[in-house]
Write a structure and sequence with these properties.
520 residues; alpha+beta; Leucine-rich Repeat Variant; Cyclophilin; rotamase
Length: 520
């Protein structure tokens, strides 16, 4: 896929694999599910077909229809979604609010504010995500801005669920250039200093780095440099770099010797920033002073690769009409709203010149993206591709012979979802024709985050996460390559809320070409 300007990270094409069987509670593939995916791919309301699925379908169909309505970006979807923000089913309420945020036309703001007080944490996550999209799209009128900011600040400090508090802290970045900046900065300092949940403290320091580095007391940043958690140290180092205060150089220099390679690399970048020098855009060689972690073998190395198609051919764009998607999305908690649905999930092994990276993929949130990626991998397009863009403490990116390569001649649609771009997340890259990411421009390029990059959540499709091989990321430079990507036996995500990752191997998943059922 050709990059215009800087093409940030994308993942690729899967034209034909058989995805896992049904998870507990999932609904088998039906013509309606296939029809839904076809309409979503075409960005069409289907002359009311999606609305009828939401209005009259069972919970799993209604949840998926709400998400599809938002992804169409059609203004006519808003009234349909507004009819379901008070639905008796929490997952339908949550996805209806999230979908209104995808439309970001301002009509859903009152419902989103009400959703912030919903008893169900999944609904509060949907409302928060939607409000953030409205603020960033400049759809919140001045008369409502303070109320929206107060709602998010209250959630950051007072919500009973730490995931909701985390997301609220992240979303406060949207107010950094508004009249609400000062109180938002104070809330973030309080959240960082007092919240018992590590995830919230990390998010608060990330938000300080992204929007408030020059507003918070220097003592807060200096204190964070000594945190036991490496992610907090990373965000504090970033924030000091963003403070533009050369007097803080002396505080950063010891961080070049931090025990974490990620902190070391970010310290070097922040020192460049304070000295007014350009950031590193391409990681060509690892300095000798970086503390590289040892490369460990994973138990997953013993799993066999599933066979590739007997007669490889160039991948083609995924076709929703050829899929048989099962329905499994039913998030009734904050953890389920930002994670995979219970059940079987495809896994892949990325064999690199430095070692193996393992990914678990989430077709229930991004069916065509996963379909595309698996098919491109199975047909060998990713074999021997370079890591053509590695940015310290940001991303490692590959998926084409170069950032300017023409790709395979097709693009796939964005599949926006509530999953967060934490560390070690895989997402699709996009073109930047006018300095902004172009929706629906993903193709084969993909990236893996080296640290939290929550500002990418609004535009880039998350479709999986790393589950093993983390130390390999530390050793990669742009001289390295992806040797091949193999599918391995599927994992099973347990039904316990908040649990992400493989618990047991599911045998028998096929890696052959052909219509591949995605899980929705």
């Amino acid at each position: 896929m050709r990059s215009s300007g800087t093409r940030l990270i994308a993942i690729a094409a899967l034209a034909a694999l058989t995805l896992p069987g049904l998870s507990e509670g999932a609904v088998p593939a039906t013509p309606k599910a296939t029809r839904l995916l076809m309409l979503e791919q075409r960005r069409s309301l289907g002359h009311g077909a999606l609305a009828r699925m939401l209005d009259t379908g069972g919970t799993l169909l209604a949840v998926r229809a709400a998400l599809a309505l938002g992804r169409t970006k059609q203004a006519a979807a808003a009234p349909v979604l507004l009819n379901h923000v008070a639905d008796s089913r929490p997952a339908v309420r949550a996805l209806s609010l999230f979908a209104l945020g995808l439309l970001a036309d301002g009509r859903g703001i009152p419902a989103m504010l009400r959703g912030m007080h919903d008893r169900n944490s999944a609904v509060r996550v949907g409302a928060l995500d939607a409000l953030d999209r409205e603020v960033m799209a400049a759809q919140v009128p001045g008369t409502l801005l303070a109320r929206v900011a107060r709602a998010e600040m209250h959630a950051a400090l007072g919500d009973s669920n730490p995931i909701v508090r985390k997301i609220a802290a992240i979303d406060l970045v949207a107010f950094a250039a508004t009249t609400q900046a000062a109180p938002a900065a104070a809330v973030l300092v309080k959240a960082f200093s007092e919240d018992p949940a590590l995830a919230v403290r990390r998010a608060a320091m990330w938000a300080i780095y992204r929007g408030y580095a020059a507003r918070v007391p220097r003592s807060i940043l200096l204190h964070a440099l000594a945190a036991s958690d490496s992610v907090i140290r990373i965000e504090a180092v970033r924030a000091i770099g963003g403070s533009k205060d050369p007097a803080l150089l002396s505080a950063l220099e010891p961080m070049l010797h931090d025990r974490s390679w990620r902190v070391q690399e970010q310290a070097a970048e922040s020192i460049l920033a304070l000295k007014g020098r350009p950031a590193t855009q391409h990681w060509k060689q690892i300095p000798a002073w970086i503390h590289l972690p040892p490369l460990h073998r994973s138990a997953l190395d013993r799993l066999p690769a599933l066979p590739r198609p007997a007669q490889p051919r160039l991948p083609a764009a995924p076709n929703a009409a050829a899929l048989s998607p099962a329905l499994s999305l039913d998030p009734t908690s904050a953890a389920e709203m930002i994670g995979p649905a219970p059940g079987a999930h495809p896994r892949v092994r990325i064999v690199t010149t430095q070692g193996n990276i393992y990914l678990e993929l989430y077709p229930e949130w991004a069916p065509l993206t996963v379909e595309n990626f698996l098919n491109v991998a199975a047909r060998g397009y990713y074999d021997n591709q370079p890591w053509f863009r590695i940015v310290p403490d940001f991303v490692v990116q590959t998926g084409d012979p170069s950032a300017e390569a023409p790709g395979l001649g097709y693009t796939i649609g964005a599949e926006e979802n509530p999953m967060l771009q934490d560390s070690d997340i895989i997402s699709m890259g996009l073109d930047y024709p006018k300095g902004k990411p172009a929706r629906d421009s993903a193709a084969t390029e993909y990236y893996i985050t080296l640290s939290p990059q929550y500002h990418l959540d609004r535009d880039f499709t998350v479709f999986g996460k790393m589950i093993a091989g983390f130390s390999v990321l530390a050793h990669l430079t742009e001289a390295d390559r992806v040797i091949r990507i193999d599918r391995i036996p599927d994992s099973v995500v347990p039904a316990t809320p908040g649990t992400v990752g493989a618990t047991r191997v599911r045998r028998g998943a096929s890696n052959r070409g052909g219509g591949s059922p995605g899980r929705h």
